[in-house]
């Protein structure tokens, strides 16, 4: 009975305990347990603990974003709150939280954030670790004020030279070198989805337990895609090849063309997550006056390319795999096509005709 159980073991968990069929019980796994179980026997725990740190920071950001609508009541960003502290913008809050949780643990040699011009060094007073963390603390931030889902994206590399303190070279690595990548989606519920190169796994935050529970094991892109996602308002800015591809996606008369519906949230993590579950393609192509499009290679395209590859899909800049691009700058942008392989390759074939 609920009353006789410890506080944390509340009703929200009971439906997970109900038997499936006659005999099978649903297996409940927290993200901590799952990460631990996946760890190779030879591991020292540094990498495992880094993933725990990210799960912890995800909970902190979720707590804050869930209160975003109260800003109007409790004070605007830039205002001074009751305690005399300035209200922070959520993306700045998320950025600072990640740095505060991760800079002193001895697991990282360097970090790079979409929010900051330069790399983030680990203060000399702390031990240096073997990993480099890249992140977009709050992607889709234009959606915060209108209560639309947003997300955090992250990628983890091994440091190139373990004897040195972190350098820019440690984060300017192609996404193929990532040892893990993932995102946290702050939506109707909060989800953390990640891969360490052994499939893509999703966890849903149980708010009452304060735990991420395994809800989507080994996520694979459906073979039959359901959606295409693009900001159609920019059609006039695209090259003829991209325009032709976009029209092909809509073409009901071409027997080769799939029957797709359109969905575009304008919040990359949310668009990506939906298409991962339902199949399809998201693209943010080059534009006449933005030859590299808008999406950042290091913080958005690279980690999501790693995930889609693990889920059986493909990501491209229209010419080559995102995984193979050697980054040259921290804030480099790239045209971006991601989703079911045949759709992305179709986009490439249209672009080759430009
Ligand atoms: P935002 O500027 O709101 O942070 O790359 C950032 C991003 O959002 C993506 O999340 C989103 O897919 C895209 O930009 C939306 O851009 P448009 O408004 O130009 O469509």
How would you characterize this protein structure?
By secondary structure, the protein is α+β, with helices and mostly antiparallel strands. The protein has helices at residues 11-17, 31-38, 46-65, 71-74, 90-102, 168-171, 240-250, 268-278, 297-310, 341-352; strands at residues 19-20, 24-25, 108-113, 120-121, 131-139, 150-158, 180-186, 190-195, 200-206, 211-216, 227-229, 261-262, 280-284, 295-296, 314-316, 333-334, 336-339. The strands form four sheets. The protein has an eight-stranded mixed beta sheet with strand order 4-3-5-6-7-8-9-10, with helices on both faces. Strands 12-11-13-17-15 form a five-stranded mixed beta sheet, sandwiched between helices. Helix 7 (240-250) packs antiparallel against helix 10. The chain is globular. Residues 1-12 and 17-23 have low confidence and may be disordered.
Mean pLDDT: 88
Strand percentage, roughly? 15-25%
Distance between the termini: 67 Å
Q: What molecules are bound to this protein?
A: 2,6-di-O-phosphono-beta-D-fructofuranose
Structural class: alpha+beta
For this structure, the quaternary state is single chain
Trace the largest sheet across and list its strands. 4-3-5-6-7-8-9-10
Low-confidence stretches: 1-12, 17-23
Specify the biggest β-sheet. 8 strands, mixed
């Amino acid at each position: 009975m609920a009353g006789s159980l410890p506080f944390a073991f509340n009703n929200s968990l009971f439906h997970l305990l109900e038997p499936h069929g006659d005999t099978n019980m649903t297996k409940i796994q927290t993200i901590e347990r799952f990460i631990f179980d996946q760890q190779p026997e030879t591991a020292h725990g540094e990498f495992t603990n880094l993933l725990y740190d990210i799960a912890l920071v995800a909970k902190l950001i979720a707590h804050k974003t869930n209160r975003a609508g109260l800003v109007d009541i409790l004070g605007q960003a830039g205002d001074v709150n009751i305690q005399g502290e300035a209200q922070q913008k959520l993306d700045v809050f998320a950025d600072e939280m990640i740095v505060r949780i991760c800079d002193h643990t001895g697991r990282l040699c360097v970090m790079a954030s979409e929010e900051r011009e330069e790399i983030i060094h680990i203060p000399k007073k702390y031990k240096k670790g073997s990993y480099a963390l890249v992140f977009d603390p709050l992607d889709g931030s234009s959606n915060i004020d209108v209560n639309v889902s947003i997300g955090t994206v992250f990628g983890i590399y091994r440091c190139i030279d373990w004897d040195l303190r972190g350098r820019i070279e440690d984060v300017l690595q192609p996404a193929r070198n990532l040892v893990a990548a993932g995102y946290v989606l702050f939506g109707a519920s909060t989800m953390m989805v990640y891969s360490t190169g052994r499939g893509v796994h999703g966890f849903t935050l149980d708010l009452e337990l304060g735990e991420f529970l395994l809800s989507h094991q080994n996520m694979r892109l459906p073979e039959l895609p359901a959606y295409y996602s693009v900001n159609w308002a920019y059609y006039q800015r695209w090259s003829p090849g991209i325009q032709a591809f976009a029209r092909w996606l809509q073409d009901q008369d071409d027997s080769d063309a799939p029957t797709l519906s359109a969905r575009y949230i304008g919040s990359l993590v949310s668009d990506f997550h939906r298409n991962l579950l339902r199949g399809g393609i998201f693209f943010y192509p080059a534009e006449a006056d933005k030859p590299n499009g808008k999406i950042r290679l290091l913080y958005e395209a690279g980690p999501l390319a790693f995930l889609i590859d693990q889920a059986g899909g493909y990501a491209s800049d229209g010419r080559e795999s995102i995984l193979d691009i050697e980054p040259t700058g921290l804030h480099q942008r790239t045209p971006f096509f991601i989703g079911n392989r045949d759709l992305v390759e179709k986009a490439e074939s249209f672009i080759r005709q430009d």
